[in-house]
């Protein structure tokens, strides 16, 4: 027998066009419905698994239909039942010890256990939740300590690749990178003081090596490893981060049996991490060219750059000509270039189909996930076959961009004149001591004053009434009667509980941003533009496309009605300018600060009308203040300046005796404590329950002089906190905040909770307050 020399097969090329990820919840929120049915016990785990598989396969088929190559790793596998960071934790075996009983014999957790880690149960608090970089998505924070045993403890990532392969799709698995996983983790309760999760990098790296080998054995040609931590300035030495990046990817690249490695770094520029990755031996690097721009003077020869030229973070149609120029600039640096979305498309809704009410002109300016996939395919075709092959698409884009620029709604003379007339005095109130004395005289509130954040449960009856009114099935009078009945119910419940400052419950509001978007000019709203916020929670961001004006008062009649029902003070409830921007898809043709000030002037007028109606406490919520903080430190001061200014422009016209509240949640407050102080709100309520008041020492050390309400009840979990638990949290709070400054409230609004758990939790909150007062 004659021996033959075998030539290794060439490494698979990266596809010419791809996306970094796709919406996971389903076009009609199929996963949300399946999850919530499972959590209620109405369906079994097998039913949830079947629904999820059906959704995954339908997504694969649609992406292939839109033009992504189903045989060349162009379609990402990025499904999650709840959160991709939680998926990484359970895959690596990083289950906190309080959930140790949920582990099965093989070390894995089933869907019930996975859900318990995410949502909590009984005395077991869930993982902490916070925002994913500068997006409105919430991830669950892993807890890592010296005791954490790392091992491949779930095969779901590999199983889903195999499932797709058996259905005829060679996908590209998407996994959270080891650096992002560890730098975003927090020390476990068992960890010694000073321990940092990144200290476990060697152990985690070994498990990632095992995972890559498993993907290779299953037939994966490419694996996408998401490392957005590399674009962010974090609370760690940059040299350490870069050294760890070199260590991780230098090590993974040397594995003998692994797929090709694509390291994606969305949300900004890689800067000094780019040459580190380029020299590590990985085959492809993803650059966000929307947020980060084209790197200059970097030799990229020998590596594939996946050029993120289609904005995955916003919904505006891509300037295809500009995108092609960016790709060409990257190619001129020596790289092999593929075109892509800049981030995963799970930040945007599924499709424009069904949104015809927006009108043909506005629709022509937009691109949701499906339309962005089509843009990527168009760009890939243009690069492979020349611009003439997509001439019609290029011409249509140019026409749409010209239409948007020329539209009169994007440049209103009266709005521009109002902004030009603003003076420095419009941003300031009298000294806090003056306001505090006037407010004490007006309200006479007790120490540890109690309130809620704003919304009360949105019952099925409320939603049905709103839907029937929107469809014309009931008239205005019937709708108003239904809303007033719910408002009275909420007021009476709060009086029975003996809360000090009441809210009207926001029965008439579908969403804290959309409600205002529907009443302000310059906005439009979608019918089915759902985006995942966390778990099964979805929002419909509004579209802020033009100059903003307020045609008439938006909240006055509902708040005034609620105040007429009680002698206790009633809070007016408004959403702040930064949060309205953060939770909308905002125009990208002018600075965000200009748009924020337009919204602020509308809110300033609303506050004036609330005061005229006798409302003396007004809350302007800014839960997203930290969310938009730029990932690069060099950009943060400018952002904090305009964001604080917009809040002050909205609120500084209030009378001294009007108590201005604000609310912030899911934030690393220590990073922005100066900005929080700069808001100059009389009372600030913050998320603090899951983290057990860990932010308060920083607020104490800052010398914060105004009043603060750290949340004592985590409303993002269905569990009811006991009186003892809340009493303990209040005691912790009093160690940092004097009683005269301290308020008692939940972490956030109660819209997503049911009345039974709401009533029980508020009863416990009031009992704890009375105990601490005593």
Give a structural overview.
With 774 residues, the chain is an alpha/beta fold. The strands form 7 sheets. Strands 1-5-7-8-9-10-11 form a 7-stranded parallel sheet. The chain has a 5-stranded parallel sheet with strand order 17-19-20-21-22. Helix 7 packs parallel to helix 8, helix 21 runs parallel beside helix 22 and helix 22 (633-651) packs parallel to helix 23. The N and C termini lie far apart (95 Å).
Relevant terms:
23 strands; single chain; 774 residues; seven-stranded parallel sheet
- Per DSSP E runs of 2 or more residues, the count of β-strands stands at 23
> Average pLDDT across residues?
95
Distance between the termini: 95 Å
Question: Quick one: overall form?
Answer: globular
Structural class: alpha/beta
Q: Taking Cα atoms only, what radius of gyration do you get, to the nearest Å? A: 26 Å
Annotate the secondary structure layout.
Layout: H1 30-39, H2 45-66, E1 76-77, H3 84-92, H4 111-119, E2 129-131, E3 138-140, E4 143-144, H5 156-166, E5 172-176, H6 178-183, E6 186-187, H7 201-218, E7 222-226, H8 238-253, E8 260-265, H9 273-278, E9 284-288, E10 304-310, H10 320-332, E11 336-341, H11 360-364, H12 369-385, H13 391-406, H14 413-420, H15 432-443, E12 449-450, H16 460-470, H17 476-497, H18 514-517, E13 521-524, E14 531-534, E15 537-539, E16 542-549, H19 556-564, E17 571-575, H20 577-582, E18 584-586, H21 592-612, E19 617-621, H22 633-651, E20 659-664, H23 673-679, E21 683-686, H24 696-702, E22 707-710, H25 723-736, E23 743-744, H26 755-773
Parallel strand pairs: 1-5, 4-6, 5-7, 7-8, 8-9, 9-10, 10-11, 12-23, 16-18, 17-19, 19-20, 20-21, 21-22
Antiparallel strand pairs: 2-3, 13-16, 14-15
Helix pairs in contact: 1-2, 7-8, 16-17, 21-22, 22-23, 25-26
């Amino acid at each position: 027998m004659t021996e033959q020399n075998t030539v290794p097969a060439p490494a698979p090329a990266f596809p010419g066009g791809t996306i970094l990820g796709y919406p996971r919840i389903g076009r009609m929120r199929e996963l949300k419905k399946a999850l919530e049915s499972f959590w209620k016990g109405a369906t079994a785990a097998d039913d949830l698994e079947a629904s999820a598989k059906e959704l995954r396969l339908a997504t694969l088929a649609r992406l292939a239909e839109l033009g992504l190559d189903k045989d060349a790793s162009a379609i990402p596998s990025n499904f999650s039942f709840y959160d991709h960071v939680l998926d990484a934790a359970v895959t690596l075996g990083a289950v906190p010890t309080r959930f140790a009983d949920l582990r099965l014999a093989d070390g894995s957790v089933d869907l019930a256990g996975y859900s318990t880690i995410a949502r909590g149960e009984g005395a077991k608090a869930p993982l902490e939740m916070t925002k994913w970089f500068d997006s409105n998505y919430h991830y669950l924070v892993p807890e890592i300590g010296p005791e954490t045993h790392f091992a491949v403890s779930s095969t779901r990532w590999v199983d889903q690749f195999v499932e797709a392969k058996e259905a005829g799709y060679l996908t590209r698995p998407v996994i959270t990178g080891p650096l992002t996983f560890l730098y975003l983790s927090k020390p476990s309760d068992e960890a010694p003081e000073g321990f940092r999760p990144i200290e476990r990098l060697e152990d985690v790296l070994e498990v990632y090596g095992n995972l890559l080998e498993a993907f290779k054995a299953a037939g994966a040609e490419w694996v996408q490893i998401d490392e957005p931590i590399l674009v962010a300035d974090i609370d760690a030495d940059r040299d350490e981060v870069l050294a760890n990046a070199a260590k991780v990817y230098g090590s993974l690249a040397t594995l003998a049996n692994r797929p090709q490695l694509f390291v994606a770094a969305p949300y900004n520029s890689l800067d000094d991490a780019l040459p580190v990755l380029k020299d590590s031996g990985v085959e492809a690097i993803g650059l966000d060219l929307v947020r980060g721009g084209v790197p200059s003077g970097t030799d990229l020869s020998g590596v594939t750059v996946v050029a993120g030229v289609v904005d995955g973070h916003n919904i505006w149609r891509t300037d295809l000509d500009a995108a092609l120029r960016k790709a060409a600039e990257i190619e001129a640096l020596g790289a092999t270039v593929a075109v892509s979305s800049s981030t995963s498309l799970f930040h945007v809704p599924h499709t424009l189909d069904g949104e015809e009410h927006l009108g043909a002109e506005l629709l022509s300016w937009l691109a949701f996930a499906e339309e962005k996939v089509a843009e990527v395919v168009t760009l890939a075709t243009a690069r492979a076959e020349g611009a003439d092959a997509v001439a019609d698409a290029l011409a249509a884009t140019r026409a749409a961009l010209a239409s948007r620029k020329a539209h009169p709604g994007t440049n209103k003379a009266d709005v521009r004149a109002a902004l030009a007339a603003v003076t420095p005095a419009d941003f300031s109130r009298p000294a806090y001591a003056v306001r505090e004395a006037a407010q004490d005289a007006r309200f006479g509130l007790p120490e540890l004053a109690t309130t809620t954040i704003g919304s009360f449960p949105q019952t099925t009856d409320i939603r049905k009434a709103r839907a029937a009114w929107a469809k014309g099935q009931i008239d205005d009078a019937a709708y108003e009667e239904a809303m007033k009945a719910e408002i009275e119910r909420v007021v009476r419940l709060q009086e029975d509980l003996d809360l000090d400052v009441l809210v009207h419950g926001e029965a008439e509001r579908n969403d804290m941003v959309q409600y205002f978007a529907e009443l302000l000019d310059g906005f439009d709203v979608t019918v089915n533009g759902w985006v995942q916020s966390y778990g099964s929670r979805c929002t419909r961001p509004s579209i802020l496309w033009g100059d903003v004006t307020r045609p008439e008062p938006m909240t006055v009649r509902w708040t005034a009605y609620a105040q007429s029902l009680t002698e206790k003070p009633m809070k007016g409830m408004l959403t702040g300018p930064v949060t309205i921007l953060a939770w909308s898809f905002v125009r990208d043709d002018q600075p965000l600060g200009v748009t924020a000030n337009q919204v602020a002037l509308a809110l300033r007028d609303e506050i004036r009308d609330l005061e005229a109606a006798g409302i003396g406490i007004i809350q302007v919520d800014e839960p997203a203040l930290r969310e938009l903080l730029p990932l690069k430190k060099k950009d943060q001061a400018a952002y904090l300046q305009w964001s604080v200014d917009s809040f002050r422009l909205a609120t500084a016209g209030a009378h001294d005796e009007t108590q201005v509240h604000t609310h912030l949640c899911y934030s690393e407050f220590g990073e922005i404590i100066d900005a929080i102080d700069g808001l100059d709100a009389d009372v600030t309520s913050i998320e603090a329950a899951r983290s057990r008041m860990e932010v308060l020492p920083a607020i104490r050390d800052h010398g914060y002089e105004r009043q603060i309400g750290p949340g004592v009840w985590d409303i993002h979990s269905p569990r009811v906190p006991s009186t003892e638990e809340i009493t303990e949290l209040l005691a912790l709070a009093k160690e940092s905040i004097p009683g005269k400054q301290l308020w008692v409230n939940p972490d956030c609004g109660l819209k997503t909770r049911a009345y039974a758990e709401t009533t029980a939790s508020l009863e416990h909150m009031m009992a704890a307050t009375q105990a601490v007062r005593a």
